[in-house]
Amino acid sequence: VPEGAPDVLCLQETKCAVSAVPAELRALPGLPHQFWSSAKDRPGYSGVGLLARTEPLEVTYGIGDPEHDVDGRVVTAEFPSLFVVSAYVPNAGRGLVRLEPRLRFDAAFLRFLQGLDARKPVLLCGDLNVAHAEIDLCHPRANRASAGFTPQERQGFSRLLEAGFVDSFRHLYPEARGAFTFWTYLGGARARNVGWRLDYAVVSRRLLGALCDCKIRSAAQGSDHCPVTALLAV
């Protein structure tokens, strides 16, 4: 499959009601099966999409948690050999004003993923709003109390890994430095690669044999995040 022609395309922070999805997205060649979720009564907030070449067996929305499911943060598609989850994890916010709800989300989301994993393997794609280790952001020392790098959020990601999931990029490239997926629009951060790795392809451990590569497409413009491509032989 050529680059840019995925079997499944996961989008996060779409900020778009289902009814407002642009026609050119609806008409994307090779991705006719499209599933969108948006925040209830909050236009321009959150939202995710999952677009597929082949029709999923089943699609579900949310994680079964009323506190967070109104925000349109998760869509899950079941395929014959695996689940694909597109997720946009809540940001803890400036001054960490939303850290507590974020941590509640992390716990509920882990339970949800474990439930899927008990049925068949999982590929989780998304903006997980955490840089897991010091290697995953440009300035770790200055950001110890910043949203996305608090000890609590990092521990949440560690718990995901301890539950039998694998950060595919870091598994393949344990020493890769400067591998970031987000750069603030302020101060020319992207040109200087002052960034964070917030976007992940996380797989059930038993999918590692099928994992061919995970690429951070940092040259792709158009957002303050860049795409991540996971290549799996399933």
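the 2nd protein, sequnce then structure:
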Amino acid sequence: LATGPRQDNSTFYEIRTYDIKPSKMKEFLEMINKHIHFRTAHSELVGFWYTELGAMNKVYHIWKYDNFAHRTSVRHAIANDKDWQGKLISVVLPFIEKQHNEVAYLVPWCQLGKPPKEGGVYEWVTFQMKPGGPALWGEAFRAAINAHINTGYTRLIGAFHTEYGLLNTVHVLWWNESPDHRAAGRHSAHEDARVVAAVRDSVRFLESQQNALLIPLQCSPLK
């Protein structure tokens, strides 16, 4: 299946999602905030969030790598980091019920953005597209995303296309000032003929979609 064009360099992002035992969620988040610096000493953390709506007791975190050799060296280093293993991993591992990871690239027309200020909320939207890759649905998907951006109600942080994991998946990360701001923007977009037309065209290639409202941790670079 065609994967289509992507960014010109080898940089990729590892997207990790963990399901946490409900009784241990508060303690897990406290431990991450306290000790994540042992992990970020080895590679760049893009963001770390917990879910507020759409899923319960789940965390999302994104790590940036220069290439696969870089990731291999980082994984080797953290496996031998006594502080990371002893002060955090050995403590929180029993709190985790399930782990999942994906490797994804930013789509070629998107650069990783930042919110205009701290204190907002993030929306993580996952689109499962029809097999064939961006060569099939890329332009229609881009038009739909741009139509939402152009309304001005939300801010795009990043759009990621999977390379490992469930293929033909695009994750889109949005930022809004608040859940109410997001709700008002969605209402406006649904009444905007430009958005309606672009979405109608792109859903021809859509299999399914789901979303979650995310709250950044104190330690998250994206807040």
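The beta strands are 12-20, 44-53, 58-65, 96-106, 121-129, 155-164, 169-176, 206-216. Confidence is low (pLDDT under 50) at residues 1-5.
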